[in-house]
Amino acid sequence: MFQTIRQPQVLGITLAAAGILMVTMGIRQSFGLFVNPLNTATGIDVVTISLALAIGQFTWGLIQPIAGVAADRYGHKVLAIGLVALALGCALTPLVTGGFGLTVTLGLLAAMGSGIGSFSLLIGATAHQLPAESRGMASGVINAGGSFGQFIFAPILQKLIQSIGWMGYVGNGRCRPGDYPHDRQAAQRHASEQNNPGG
After folding, report:
1. d(CA 111, CA 132)
2. pLDDT, tens digit, 9 for 90 and up, residues 30-84
3. How far is CA 19 from CA 1, 48, 141, 151, 189, in A?
4. C-alpha to C-alpha distances, 94 to 88, 106, 171, 186, nearest whole angstrom
5. Domains, the chain
């Protein structure tokens, strides 16, 4: 069934593209898991968070044709820029304290990064390097990588949010629970309840 992509070079390109799509789609489809933790930790209201994510959806679609044109001209450098933008958007998110910052990090940077690493761009980038008889199977494998990312990222991220907190995951440990005023207040209330269980 996979005879057309068994050649080492073809298989390597296909799996690399599938892995990239797994990450970009997995992260993009999991942003909704951070709505409640963001609201609780930063005090940013749900409407503002939802607006930032909605802008991200628009940005994700808008950037794809632009990135496609750029990729035809500059090659894989565009994909590298997209991955950097995605990583930067996720890393800076724990540092924001308002709606504007959240729009910049999740609504623009992370969305642009995931859009640049989307299926259409990856297929276009890999098709030029694959023989004609391998392109159909390769596109199926790459698309499956995106589906697998959506399947596996959500439960993993949910577990990480529960165990180390959303800031510990998104910021890779750059911020700790308690770094925001709302976190400190919540921690103080929790400690007070523990010390005075009857009150």
Report:
1. 31
2. 888 888 888 887 888 999 999 999 999 999 999 999 988 888 888 778 888 999 9
3. 20, 32, 10, 13, 43
4. 11, 11, 6, 17
5. 8-193 (1.20.1250.20)
Secondary structure tally for the chain: helices H, strands E: 9, 0
87 and 113 Cβ atoms separated by less than 8 Å: yes
Residue corresponding to tokens 């276009």: 124
Q: Are 91 and 172 in contact (CB under 8 A)?
A: yes
pLDDT in tens, 81-107: 999 999 999 888 888 888 899 999 999
Q: CA angle at residue 60 from 58 to 61, to 5 degrees?
A: 70
Query: Which residue, 113, 145, 128, is CA-closest to 75?
Result: 128
Amino acid identity at 17: A
Could you give the CA distance from residue 175 to residue 167 in angstroms, rounded to a whole number?
6
Dist. CA 93–CA 2, nearest whole Å: 41
- Predicted TM-score of the model (pTM): 0.72
